[in-house]
Structures are given as structure tokens and as C-alpha cells.
Amino acid sequence: MIFGRPERGKPPVEPVTLKILVAGGFGVGKTTLVGAVSEIRPLRTEEVLTEAGRPVDDISGVEAKNTTTVAMDFGRITLREDLVLYLFGTPGQERFWFMWDELSEGALGAVVLADTRRLEDCFAAVDYFERRSIPFLVGVNCFEGAARYPADDVRRALDLDDHVPLLMCDARDRESVKEVLVGVVQHAMARAARLRRTVTA
């Protein structure tokens, strides 16, 4: 590159941009995951938990949590020169689920984060993406001090279809999160290719 311009003969690459949702229960690590990989300063819509919200916000198992996402988290990561992911973290509490339909519009796929200490909290997200035929991957966020279970046991507990990928991850670790994001992109693209073959067969 010369003086900020592309070298002659090498036109700038126009990257493909894909939208990925990050969903799951309250306090499962969605905001942390987006922040761990975003190459821009993440947009966060966090508010402090209040006494008024305690009757509706179940914080059992995440008692140290004192903020909550009320709209979305947003971040961006370039996986390759020609591939950029826009990440949208969804709010976890049921009272904010009306945002999910807006956020899922045009999404290639989704990551459903799960916490083995509160596994039932991700059932709603799994059900949401299954019902709307949005390809998704389950990322089990391995919290310190939480019991570790074999992937097959977690899969059975979530009653996942065989084709749904499940990966262990650390939402704080950039490389771990990148593996999850690459996994969901590959899963969504493979599913799209299968559908195309079915239509043309």
C-alpha cells in the first residue's frame, strides 16, 4: 500500500459480512464473549440490577452479577480478509425476549451459550432457533468452579439433535471464542449447501 492507497493491480477486497447472534440465559457470558473477540469497542446496553427487578430477574447461581443487558451487545470481528462477522448479543431475561425477533432478522446463525450450573436457562434459546430453523451451535461456557461434564452428557441433557454442534469454550478467551464462531459459520454454510442440494435434486 502506497500513501494509504491499494497497490496498483490489487483491488481492495470487498468482505462478505455475516450476522451472528449470541443468545442464552441470564448471566451466561454473552456480553463477555462479544467483548473477548470484538476488534471494535463493543456497544453495550447494560444497566445496573435494581431491587425492583429482583422479583423477575433470577440471579441464583450468578449472585455476583450486578448488571444486565437490556437491548443488545454489538461487536465485530474479521475472521479473514474477505469475511467479517457482526455479533449481536441478545438480552437473557424473559421480559426482553421481544428484542429477539428484531435481532434475528437476517442472521446467518447463532451461538447458544450454556452454563452447566443453570443448563435449563438455555432451553428457551435452543427452542427459539429450532422453531425458526435458524442454524445454531451450543457453546458450553466452562466457568471456574463449575462441574465439568462430557459433551455427550450435556447434549443428552439439552435433547439436541445430532446435527447441532456442541463445543466447550471459555467466553473470556479470544481464541476459544473464535473457534466457536468459526464453528457456527461452518455449520450454517454446510446446512445451506444441504438445502440447496435438496432443492436441486
UniProtKB/TrEMBL annotation:
InterPro entries: Gliding_Motility_GTPase (IPR052705), Gpn (IPR004130), P-loop_NTPase (IPR027417)
Pfam name, any one: ATP_bind_1
Keyword Hydrolase: yes
Keyword Transmembrane belongs to the record: no
Keywords: GTP-binding, Hydrolase, Nucleotide-binding
Family of the protein in this entry: Belongs to the GPN-loop GTPase family.
Protein name in UniProt: ATP/GTP-binding protein
High-level lineage: Bacteria, Bacillati, Actinomycetota, Actinomycetes, Kitasatosporales
